[in-house]
Design a protein that fits this description.
single chain; 66 residues; alpha+beta; 4-stranded antiparallel β-sheet; 53% strand; signal; Argininosuccinate lyase
Length: 66
């Protein structure tokens, strides 16, 4: 079991350092705004590698969170 765990850790470290190619770049953005409906917030996190981007966003405003 320990060998499997160590193998996964080493594979993750190899992928993270970019030795097998360009590493995935993390991205994050936040927005805080104010309008006639009150204050709203939104956030977005993701990863980027070459032409591929994967993002997840969430926001909250007058009508709740979505």
């Amino acid at each position: 079991m320990m060998r499997i765990i160590m193998g996964l850790v080493l594979a993750g470290a190899l992928a993270a350092c970019g030795a097998d190619g360009e590493p995935w770049t993390p991205t994050m953005s936040t927005t805080i705004g104010m309008g006639s409906g009150g204050v709203y917030t939104s956030g977005n996190v993701g990863v980027h590698k070459g032409p591929v981007s994967i993002n997840v966003g969430r926001g909250c405003g007058r009508n709740g969170c979505w």
